[in-house]
Amino acid sequence: MAHDSYFWEYISSSEKKTTQIAKDFADILQMGDVVALKGELGSGKTFFVKKVVEELGFDGYVSSPTFTILNIYEASTYLYHFDFYRLNNIEEIEKIGFSDLLTEEGIFFIEWPEKARVLLPDEYFEIRIDIVNGTHRKIRIKKIIRNKDIPCQN
Amino acid sequence: MKKPLILAIETSCDDTSAALIDGNCNVLSNVISSQEEVHLKYGGIVPELASREHIRTLIPIVEMALEKAEMGLKNIDAVSVSANPGLIGSLLVGVSFAKGLAFSLRKPLIAVNHIFGHVFANFLENKDIEFPFLSLIVSGGHTELVIFSSSLEYTILGKTVDDAAGEAFDKIGKLLGLPYPGGPHIDSLAVGGNKLAIEFPLPMLKHNNFDFSFSGLKTAGMLYLKKKGILDEAQTHDFAASFQHAIVEVLFLKTIKALKEHSLKTLLLAGGVAANSELRSVFANYCKEHDIKLYYPSEKYCTDNAAMIGAAAQFKYRNKKFASLELNASSVKGMKLL
Lengths: 154, 338
What we know:
The complex is a heterodimer.
Chain A: E1 2-12, H1 15-28, E2 34-38, H2 45-55, E3 70-74, E4 78-83, H3 90-95, H4 98-101, E5 107-111, E6 123-131, E7 137-146
Parallel strand pairs in A: 2-5, 2-6, 4-5
Antiparallel strand pairs in A: 1-7, 3-4, 6-7
Helix pairs in contact in A: 1-2
Chain B: E1 6-10, E2 17-21, E3 27-32, H1 36-42, H2 47-69, E4 78-84, H3 88-105, E5 109-113, H4 114-120, H5 122-125, E6 133-138, E7 143-148, E8 154-159, H6 165-175, H7 182-190, H8 215-228, H9 233-261, E9 266-270, H10 277-289, E10 293-295, H11 299-302, H12 306-318
Parallel strand pairs in B: 1-4, 4-5, 6-9, 9-10
Antiparallel strand pairs in B: 1-2, 2-3, 6-7, 7-8
């Protein structure tokens, strides 16, 4: 069973508006939070993470982790930026040490999380970005809470 | 062979490699585990497979490198390793091995930044390069403009604020259904295409700095392909030529701006995208006309290899810049020389 405790939806018409949405979102993040970002190639997942990470106090360069799979940024806490674009299955994700890394102190951002669904914690934020057109993006943010303990039926 | 003899190890991403380099930056051996076949199957570098491969292949590859160079461990004067940046699990295999070997041989350990390794790949085949120089490093993971005033002093002028140039090539290549990595295939497809057929945005050109951005260009390419649906052969050639031209144009214009502003007369290209034919040709023409010395590595030294790590290590050896055995691999973003 899963339910959404809250749900936000925005239409952003510019990078500037997306930046504001990302900054507002950053303000509610707490240590240990996991943020999964979904959206097709070019929808702006890395851009969104960049703006959140900047708001969280990292002042260096935030670039795409597609090649490295994981970028780590040092702010007031460690910020882990994963990108599973080139990974193919749970086994590969598990073996880069993903589950171990999730137990570290920090905040976690995951692009292309679809392949890691079962490895995600019971509670996490899901951000879905859809391309409306060249400049407009639909951004949906929800908190996913999964109940693993399903009551016994008999 | 001129001393010192340096054993170099590179495991930062997909390939395991070991090389022996002498004091004149001559390559005595350079062994690379080619995992292309595995990668072709998966449509991308497979880091975990790679990481597992490093553990399995590193020792045999070091042995092969020694054998090819007709050297033994006792001949080695230092052990060097690429220690950042890269995928942490992969880097750790090389770093741990190098530390153990240096300790057991009681020889110095030299930590090399992988990106600088790409730049110093140029010294493997050219012994007459003089400092200062500008270097443009372009690969699947990096896009940087760096001035080296000496082998140890450098200034980062600019870098990508989002995707690397090679990443834009590879991702658009995937959308075109090309095998991984897409860059060389787009390069071949561009031949016979009209590079002015499609006008793509030239990102960051109006910004008065040396940073790059290729994410917007990637998105523009993706949106174009989505709108057009399936391209016929001529359209595919035109698309490849135009997309490649946009990337090359941005790299070219920013680089020559840096050459002019800093009055530099030597340019080094480095990294996998430095093998791109249009990139090489526009720089060759410009440098010839403007009396600038241009260097780029041959293709085998453009992609990841240990020889380039050995070349960079030679300069650190000369300056006695050794690492302690507490050296750790780092995937934290940054360009520290270590």
